[in-house]
Design brief:
Blueprint (H helix, E strand, L loop, with lengths): L1 H30 L3 H5 L2 H22 L6 H28 L2 E7 L2 E6 L5 H10 L12 E4 L6 H12 L13 E2 L4 H7 L11 H13 L9 E5 L5 E5 L6 E5 L3
Parallel strand pairs: 1-3, 2-5
Antiparallel strand pairs: 1-2, 3-4, 5-6, 6-7
Length: 251
């Protein structure tokens, strides 16, 4: 039993360290609040943790018999590790491809833009037409303004595409502009929490409680929804300085 427990403990330690390094790098580089929540990658993380921290060490505990020939034991553990590595690489690539690259203000919303939201052709167009906003593999999340283009034909084409479930302007970095350039337009979209349509009555009550706990007024036109693949959150800004005051979950 001591041999099994030792093998289990070593495997658990190695798996935990590997997973912590990967998640730590992704979180502190790209997924800090509200990225992790809005990108809704928790299901991928749960599967990765289940395979690498639970199933892998548990299988090692089962196969690590003290009387088993060393060659056979090594083979069994290598098979387990190979399965773990496959799951780890697959999960890491899924989380990497979904990493937040931009937090965009467009029209009346703040939205998270993930790496796989941007078509490869748009990456190339951005490098050619607006290199300062072009994404790179090492790009960290940036706050940007994504207004619709002035050209009416192109504007209508993008609107029709977005309505039909296709590409929207937030996935076209060639149209991006600096965050500060959009603050006037953003200020015009701020509303009272009660006037926001993205939240249910119960969610608004929870948001009000959390705003009061943070010392924020609940009856001022200083909020805007922030959306992604998960549930939306509420962004609260100072209408005078347009500084982001708080980003609050509704659930």
């Amino acid at each position: 039993m001591n041999f099994r427990l030792k093998a289990f403990g070593l495997h658990l330690l190695a798996s935990t360290v590997a997973l912590a390094l990967i998640f730590g790098t992704l979180y502190f580089g790209w997924y800090r609040w509200p990225g992790w929540y809005l990108a809704d990658v928790s299901h991928v993380v749960v599967v990765m943790a289940g395979v690498d921290v639970v199933v892998g060490p548990l299988l090692t505990f089962i196969v690590a018999g003290p009387r088993k020939p060393r060659r056979e034991l090594t083979r069994d553990i290598m098979v387990i590790v190979a399965i773990q590595l496959f799951a780890l690489i697959y999960g890491t690539m899924s989380v990497w491809n979904g990493r937040p690259l931009y937090y965009a203000f467009s029209e009346n919303l703040l939205q998270v833009v993930q790496a796989y939201d941007i078509d490869p052709s748009e990456w190339e167009l951005a490098r050619q037409q607006k290199s300062e906003f072009a994404p790179h593999w090492y790009s960290l999340p940036r706050w940007i303004w994504a207004p619709l283009p002035q050209d009416s034909a192109e504007r209508n084409r993008i609107v029709a595409s977005a309505i039909g479930g296709g590409a929207d302007v937030i996935s076209m970095p060639r149209y991006f502009k600096p965050w500060d350039a959009g603050l006037r337009a953003l200020r015009a979209q701020l509303k009272r929490l009660d006037d926001q349509r993205f939240f249910s009555g119960a969610e608004k009550q929870r948001l009000k409680q959390r705003m009061r706990a943070a010392g924020l007024a609940t009856d001022q036109p200083d909020t805007i929804p922030m959306t992604g693949r998960g549930r939306p959150v509420l962004a609260v800004l100072d209408p005078t300085s347009m500084r982001m005051t708080s980003i609050i979950r509704a659930d």
